[in-house]
Design goal:
By secondary structure, the chain is mostly helical. The chain is built from 20 helices and no strands. Helix content is 72%, strand content 0%.
Length: 498
């Protein structure tokens, strides 16, 4: 019976609230009310702006139609006829594409779950899913056709209003900015927000300049995206309060300010490389020596040109069938630039989230940069012709020696295996050495089957990988101070607690 007294007295009461107000004054309450009213006004203004645009487009208001067509025609005249401008605009537009943004959000969500921030991960999933639902629904409701310009330079399926790229980029880059803001120091946060804003603006401009959206489509997408972010951010704030976080973060603090230590990439890591200038010189010397080895080997096999070197692609050609052609195409794509870059861009942030060290990421980045530069310079210097068989991939811009597909595949999966084997204790870690063998083997067979490379081109790729990874192993030391994910999290918590 006596234990009930303290617990009952610990419960908050109106009198306690009055004492808090007497001690702190009404300033916190006033500031909270001001922020809430201001946020409400912003949401109302943005919602009214989108609603007005929706009605004007739906009822074909002549002044807006004239403005839309004038802007579309003017930009089309500036872009049409310039392949370089079109290529740049399409690349910018791709950063607002659905596939790219879903992959980006998936990587960040994975990183947040690894860092034990499930509430922020769920916020990203819910907010992003809402944008995916809003875009096609409103497009179907309005049913606006896409612009018709004099010289089309791009095409897009579906209706025009609102712009899915504008809506999606505003939501995705906006919510990522709110979530990741606490990882930056105060002086860098305005620059981070400005960068996100510039990306959104450029994506919207690219859609108008490519002639696939009107100006009002893009502005409507931006307004709807802002309204949706404000709505979900307010819901997240209510969720925080219900979870026991009475402090209300302002915009420049991000959605969850206390997540800052967990969001920072490597809070407990010291210097990534001691004596970086000396290490840079060592890496440069190693690159030059590797290039010398490649050039010497490439010069020898080009001048020697053994008969069996052309015989293997000719022999593999006898097995060609439509089914094997398709299979070899897929294996070959596993080693092209897009696949290698995609795997690298997924692995690096996840590795950083798991082990909270920049060194393994630096090792992989230097591996792939070195592979690309060594391949391009060696191919240009050696100038070896392709095998004298039918080449299923057609004319290639580089020479045959060494194989870029095979070198990139070996470098990527070998570097990942080196990183993982030192940091993972589970038996599943052996999957990566197996991939480091199977992936290059499949790519090598497919490239020779398709008539694109000699066996000695494959040997050149293996020489490139062995020499370059040896250089980086001794200079970068990727597994120095290697820790497991559990040990890395413990070190970071100890640093924050100190």
């Amino acid at each position: 019976m006596t234990s009930a007294g303290p617990s009952a007295s610990a419960a908050p009461s109106p009198r306690d609230d009055n004492r808090v107000l007497e001690r702190t004054g009404w300033s916190p309450v006033r500031h909270f009310a001001e922020r809430s009213v201001l946020g409400l006004l912003v949401v109302i203004a943005v919602g009214l702006g989108f609603g007005a645009l929706l009605l004007l487009v739906r009822f074909h208001w002549s002044p807006l139609q004239s403005l839309d067509h004038a802007v579309a025609d003017g930009l089309n005249h500036q872009v049409a006829g310039s392949d370089a401008k079109v290529a740049v605009l399409q690349q910018i537009s791709s950063f607002g594409g659905r596939v790219f943004m879903i992959a980006l959000v998936a990587v960040v969500v994975t990183m947040l779950l690894i860092r034990r921030r499930p509430r922020l991960a769920l916020y990203l999933v819910v907010t992003g899913a809402g944008a995916l639902i809003l875009d096609p629904s409103l497009k179907t409701l309005v049913g606006r056709l896409r612009p018709v310009v004099e010289s089309p330079v791009a095409h897009a399926p579906g209706n025009s209003f609102p712009s899915g790229h504008a809506l999606g980029s505003m939501v995705v880059y906006g919510m990522l900015a709110l979530v990741l803001l606490p990882m930056f120091r105060a002086r860098w946060r305005p620059w981070f927000l400005a960068l996100a804003g510039i990306i959104v603006l450029l994506i919207g401009f690219s859609r108008i300049a490519l002639g696939v959206h009107f100006l009002s489509d893009v502005v409507a997408g931006w307004l709807l995206g802002i309204a949706w972010i404000c709505t979900t951010a307010y819901a997240f704030r209510v969720w925080r309060r219900e979870a026991g976080h009475p402090d209300e973060p302002v915009l420049h603090d991000g959605l969850e300010p206390e997540a800052g230590p967990d969001l920072r990439p490597a809070p407990a890591e010291g210097a990534v490389l001691p004596h970086p200038w000396a290490k840079g010189a060592e890496i440069l010397v190693g690159w030059v020596l590797t290039f010398g080895l490649l050039y010497a080997f490439g010069y020898a096999v080009t001048r020697w040109n053994p008969g069996w070197d052309d015989g293997v692609p000719r022999w593999l050609q006898t097995f060609r069938t439509p089914a094997l052609d398709d299979l070899s195409w897929w294996w070959s794509k596993a080693g092209d630039t897009h696949a290698i870059l995609a795997i690298s861009l997924v692995f690096c942030p996840i590795a950083l989230a798991l082990w909270r060290q920049w060194r393994p990421v630096l090792f992989l980045v230097l591996t792939m940069i070195g592979e690309l530069t060594l391949f391009l310079t060696s191919a240009a210097a050696v100038g070896r012709p392709r095998p004298g068989v039918e080449q299923l991939d057609g004319q290639m811009p580089t020479s045959s020696f060494p194989s870029g597909h095979i070198a990139a595949t070996i470098c990527l999966w070998t570097a990942i295996a080196i990183i993982v084997m030192a940091r993972v204790r589970s038996p599943w870690r052996w999957v990566f050495p197996v991939l480091a063998v199977l992936m290059p083997l499949g790519v090598a067979l497919s490239r020779m089957y398709r008539g694109m490379h000699h066996p000695t081109d494959v040997l050149g790729a293996m020489l490139l990988t062995a020499a370059w990874l040896t250089v980086l192993w001794w200079t970068v030391r990727p597994n120095a101070r290697a820790v497991t994910a559990t040990e890395a999290a413990r070190e970071s918590r100890q640093l924050v607690g100190a």
